[in-house]
Amino acid sequence: MRGLERAVGWVVRGAGALGGVLTLSCVALIAYAVGMRYLLGQPVPWTDKVAGWLVVGVVMLASPEAQRRFEHIGVDIARERLGPRLVRLVHLVGTLSVALVAALLLQAGIEMVEFSRMVGMMTDLEGVPAWWIQALMPVGAALLLLVAACQSLLLLLGVEPEYLPDGDSETLPRDPLARAE
């Protein structure tokens, strides 16, 4: 089971790294747009749309890694009052809920892409089909579903997924950047 968890981790970390590249690209694009608009007086209208698309890509590619690390929003105080068996059940219900939402997003994303391709929907930028951008949704949803399904399977088999929070851990994020260390 740990092999499956490691394989999923590698795939999701790769997607997260791509999300990081998209973040840097978004920052560079916005810097370019600001420079063109305010320093040279020549606004570039397409940059706002592309920056928005990049943010969608960042969210869809980074959310599976956040799920893998259990860094989503949780109610720690409620979990602290439960016994260990109920805490495990709460985690299982949580991962199954994420899997269900991811499956719904995946289905909706596939339908959205199919429809856009069928009608030939284009973006405001000439030559860019809408489905190119929309494809980020089913890709991110599939990765999120993969992570949540793996975590659910591990919990069902009595194995603790990596990064599963315990009652003894600190309540601050584990990421040193988030703690400003």
Features:
single chain; 181 residues; mainly alpha; 6 helices; 71% helix; 0% strand; elongated
Protein model, in words:
With 181 residues, this protein is mostly helical. It has six helices and no strands. It has helices spanning 2-39, 46-68, 76-80, 84-119, 130-134, 136-156. Helix 1 (2-39) packs antiparallel against helix 2 (46-68), helix 1 packs antiparallel against helix 6 (136-156) and helix 2 (46-68) packs parallel to helix 6 (136-156). The protein is elongated, with a radius of gyration of 20 Å. It starts with a helix and ends in a 25-residue tail after the last helix. 24% of the residues are buried. The model has no long low-confidence stretch (mean pLDDT 88).
